[in-house]
Structures are given as C-alpha cells and as structure tokens.
Amino acid sequence: MRLRSLVSLQKVWFFIVLAVLPWAIFTNVSFGQERKIDSMFLDLDKKYRMPGEWTMLPFELEDPYKRVKNGPPLANIINKANVEWISRWIANPKKVVPNAKMPNLGLDFEEIKAVIVFLSSLKEKELPQITWDAFLLKKEDELSDDEYDKMEKVFNNGKGVWGRARCTICHPIKGAGGNVGVGPDLGEITTKINRNWLYDWLGNTKSHFPDTMMAQFRFNDTDLRGIVEFVMRDTQFVPEEKEEEAGEVKEAKPAEPVVQILTEKEFSSIRKDIALIEKGKDIVERARCFVCHDIKGISELMPVVEKKRDGLAGFEKILYEIRCLSCHRIQNKGGTYAPNLTIAGTKIHMNWEKGFLMSPDIIRPLSQQMPKFNLTEDDAKAAIEYIEKNLHTKETLTNPFEGGAPSAAVVAAGEKLFYEKGCNTCHAEGTKGGGVVGPNLQTVGDRLQPAYILYHLKNPQQANPQAVEPTFGLSDEELKSLVGFLADHVQKKEGKE
Ligand code: HEC
Ligand code: HEC
Ligand code: HEC
Ligand code: HEC
Fold this sequence. Notes:
The chain is mostly helical and about 500 residues long. It is built from 21 helices and 6 strands. It folds into 3 domains: about 90 residues, Orthogonal Bundle (Cytochrome Bc1 Complex, Chain D, domain 2); about 220 residues, no CATH class; about 80 residues, Cytochrome Bc1 Complex, Chain D, domain 2. About 45% of the residues lie in helices and about 0% in strands. The strands form 3 sheets. It has a two-stranded antiparallel ribbon. The longest helix is centred in the first third of the chain and has 27 residues.
C-alpha cells in the first residue's frame, strides 16, 4: 500500500517535470551564462523528489542560503568601512552598491550620525596591523621607477590569483558578472575598505562573519598580498569618473537630492558623545536593524545566536570553510549555479575528482568554472572519500563494460551514432570541434563512470531535472555503443595511472 502511493507520487513528479520543463527551458535556461531556476520549480522539485532516493548522510548539511541573519555582524564595522562610506550606505544602500539587498530605511542625516556613533561604540577588536613594504602604501604617481616595477610585480601576481580564484563568478563588477548571485558588487570597493581589512578578510573570512557564504581560499602570504594589491589598485574597483568633470556639459539631469556625508573629521568630534550613542541605540532598535544583523545588547527578542563550529573535521570542515554549497547542491541544500553533487559518487571517477579539486580545469567552456581554492591532497582525499561513500544513487547502476573495455567495433558504432544523432551540435569531442552548449567530451572517459553515462543518456533529466539535452529514446544497443565510444575518451598520457 505504502509502496504504491510512493510509486504514484513519483509519477506525479514525472508529469510535473514534463509539464514544467519546456517552459523552464525557454524562460530560464540561457546557455552557460546564467543558470537561474524559477523558485517555483525548486519548490516543486523539493516537494516531489522523494528523500527516499537519497542516501542518509553522516552529518546534517548546513545550507549557506538558510542563514538566520542575512546581513553581516556589525560589531567591527568601523574597522572595515570608513564612516563616509557607512553614512552614504545607510542613507541609500542601492545607490552605493548596485546589487545591495539592504532596504533604504529612510533615516535622516542626524539619525544616521547617531547610528554610526553607536555602531562604532560596539567595536570588539582592533584591526590587525599588517606590515607592508613602504612603497606599496604610496600612490602610483608618487612611486619611483624602481618602486613602480616592484609594485607591478606584486600586482601582476595578484591579477593571476584573482583570475584563477574566479572571484567574479560570485561578485559582479559594476553590474557585470556575479552569476552565482551571492556576492556584493565590488566595482567601487576601494571607496569602502582598507588594505589591512582586506588582507585579514581574505585570509580568514569566517573570523569576521561566521555565516558568510564566501569561500575561504587557501592563499599563501605572497598570493594574499598580491590580490590585495590588485584589488586596491586596479581601476575596475574604483568609481568611474563622471564625464561632466571633463568639461563637456551633458544634458541636464533632474537634480538629485544632496546626500549629506559624515566626514572623518566630524565623526572624531562626536564619537565619544554618550547621549548620541544612546540615541543611536534607540534608532537601531526602532529601525529593527537586528532582524538582519547580529547586534549585541540590542534586543532580548532576537538574541544573538552563535553556532558552535569548533571541532569540525574532514569534509564537514571543508564544506564549511570553502562553502561548496554556495554554488553546488547536495540533496535539497545549497545553490544551483554549479553541477548538482547529490549523486557525484556514482557519476564521477574519484581519481579524476581528486585532481580536479586540487587544480580544477575547464569542463564546461561557457563561463562556468570552478575556482581554484588550493585544496591540499588531504582535503581532496577527505572530499572524495565522503563523496564516494555517501553521494550515490540508491540502486547500483550497471556498467555495460564491467568485464572489460569496449571493443573497437562498439567504439566505431558509437562514433557513427554520435554524429548521426547530432550530439556534436552541443558537444565537442576529439579534433572535429563541435558545440559548446554541453561539456567538452574530449576526456569524458576519465571523468564520468560508464554506468553513469548510460544512466544519463537514457534520460538526461533523470539526474538533472533542468538538463537541456533531449531524451533521444535510444535502443539498448545504441546506448551501449555510445557509452563505449565516450568511455574510450581518455587522456592517454604516459605516466598517468
Ligand atoms: C532587511 C534586512 C536589513 C535591515 C533591516 C538592515 N540591514 Fe543592514 N544590511 C543588510 C544586508 C543584507 C547587508 C549586506 C550588504 C547587502 O545589502 O547586500 C547589510 C549591510 C549593512 C552594513 C554594511 C556592513 C558591512 O559589513 O559591509 C551596515 C553598516 C548596515 N547594514 C547597517 C544597518 C543599520 C544601521 C540598520 C538599521 C538602521 C540596518 N543595517 C538594517 C540587511 C539589512
Ligand atoms: C562563493 C562565492 C564567493 C566567491 C567565490 C568570492 N566571494 Fe567575496 N564575498 C562573497 C559574499 C557572499 C560576500 C558578502 C558576505 C556574505 O554575505 O557572506 C563577500 C564579500 C567580499 C568582500 C567584502 C565586500 C563588502 O563590501 O563587504 C570582498 C572584498 C570580497 N568578498 C572579495 C573577494 C575576492 C577577492 C574573491 C576571490 C579571491 C572573492 N571575494 C570570492 C562571496 C564570494
Ligand atoms: C564559487 C562556486 C563554487 C564553489 C564554492 C565550489 N565549486 Fe565545484 N564547481 C563549480 C563550477 C562552476 C563547476 C563546473 C566546472 C566546469 O564545468 O568546468 C564545478 C565543478 C565541480 C565538480 C565536477 C562536477 C561535475 O559534475 O562535473 C565537483 C566534483 C566539484 N565542483 C566539487 C566541489 C567541492 C567539493 C567544493 C568545495 C570544496 C566545490 N566544488 C566548491 C563551482 C564551485
Ligand atoms: C541540445 C544540446 C545537447 C544535445 C543535442 C546533446 N547534449 Fe549532452 N549535454 C548537454 C548539456 C547542456 C549537458 C550538461 C548538463 C549539465 O551540465 O548538467 C550535457 C551533458 C552530457 C554528458 C555529460 C553529463 C555530465 O553531467 O557531465 C554526456 C556524456 C552527454 N551530454 C552526451 C551526449 C550524447 C551522447 C548526445 C547525443 C546522443 C548528447 N549529449 C546530445 C546538451 C546536449
């Protein structure tokens, strides 16, 4: 009886997928660029996908998207941002950072001053003092030629680190990028932060914001200094100069209301004012800032909750530090930007996976690549052990080539089919080139297990409900030859196990 109802539930799910899918494809899936999934679809997916299909996991996964407070803690904000920036921010967040989530709370300048003075009174720790080579603290036009060369070396190293770290998949820069959809726009970040804070943040994000969704990269000191130099100096992080200042008169825009800005000078004259601090505290309470921010001593109704995270080990620690689930999904937790890992243990060859985690290469050519986190061999081992043990399909999938490698005839038949069926319109394999909608299949035999390739080709939506690959309705014979052909796509380099 119970089994029956489960079966019918699965049918319902299947029909919903069928009904929703074409619409989901045309409205939401733009190839490669952006993978937004309608929230309704995700809800349905969650509702109708039976947890019974998943294995029990050894620890409860933390979903970085479900944090209690969406705003950062404010205790040490005065170390992070300068008061001018904070006053512009509170006055109108979206005018300061285009993708800001914080609402405009309608405070006037006198109130904002009081709030800032109150927030600065909360400071719990000093910002660590980092020692920098003196020339790195100079402006570009103050550097001698020799100093410029030395600075440029640090900068260029940082530029490389920035690229490999793929910071822009989370952070837009002046509106462009940020496909994961979670980081603030960094296009004017140099007007907010200082280099000591940035060094400390990139070195240990969690000590500033325990619930942050940002990945903790394993940077060494040289790379850390490089990326700080790059962010503090490159023009993409500096506001664009207003063209009006260049002399030419633009057509008159409607005059914007002047936003008053709290200067450092005024701030230092009022920062110790006890009455003002009290006033600020009142405003913060009335404006309900604590709904989104942890602010100690503010509300008994919403006490500050501190999750215990000491003693995390193995993959649980890696998941927390790297925040894999900001991008990936496991079961019903996490994001949808990167491939779903729920059955990664059935899908992927663990040997390949280990190398990929330590040094990711490009599988999907269109702007969807995994950052280089500099995971160590031990990290990668802990990850693949967990994945192999826990992230697999309930049933064991069959590998049509269990007994041995596919014969040359099977491979040849598979190759013929691959082109007959037009797989190459979306995929490249070998030297003939091909489409870039799907992953490059050049070394797919190293990456994917044959049993999974079979499972995928039978019904691409089975493993990934939003897959755009059509179901070809292939016969068993055809499936076998295609799997044989693809499993044969390995990197036959010498010295490779
Ligand atoms: C509805 C939720 C919400 C409320 C209410 C709210 N904030 Fe925020 N705040 C955020 C979020 C989210 C951020 C992170 C930046 C962003 O908007 O993406 C933020 C960022 C900030 C920052 C910058 C922090 C940093 O580390 O860069 C300050 C300062 C701040 N808020 C102050 C306040 C104050 C003061 C109040 C009350 C007057 C308040 N916020 C009310 C959601 C909120
Ligand atoms: C997984 C997505 C992700 C990646 C990758 C990422 N960040 Fe972030 N970053 C965030 C989020 C999210 C925040 C805001 C804190 C929060 O809400 O958790 C943030 C905050 C920041 C801030 C503070 C900005 C502010 O205004 O408060 C800086 C600076 C920053 N990141 C730089 C970087 C750099 C440099 C890299 C690459 C080395 C990087 N990030 C990679 C998600 C990411
Ligand atoms: C900032 C986003 C982001 C974070 C954080 C992230 N990944 Fe990825 N990951 C990706 C993207 C994007 C891809 C797809 C790469 C490609 O196709 O070239 C990927 C690919 C993978 C793959 C290959 C999946 C497949 O089906 O081909 C695995 C496995 C993987 N990541 C594991 C992890 C693990 C484990 C972590 C945490 C240690 C992690 N990732 C953190 C973005 C991320
Ligand atoms: C309409 C475009 C399209 C066609 C036609 C197509 N595919 Fe795909 N295929 C994709 C996309 C997109 C993905 C990536 C799915 C993902 O990232 O989860 C994919 C994934 C794959 C994968 C790897 C699965 C993974 O998760 O890494 C294999 C193997 C594959 N396709 C084989 C084939 C074969 C064989 C054919 C022909 C019978 C074919 N595809 C036809 C778009 C297509």
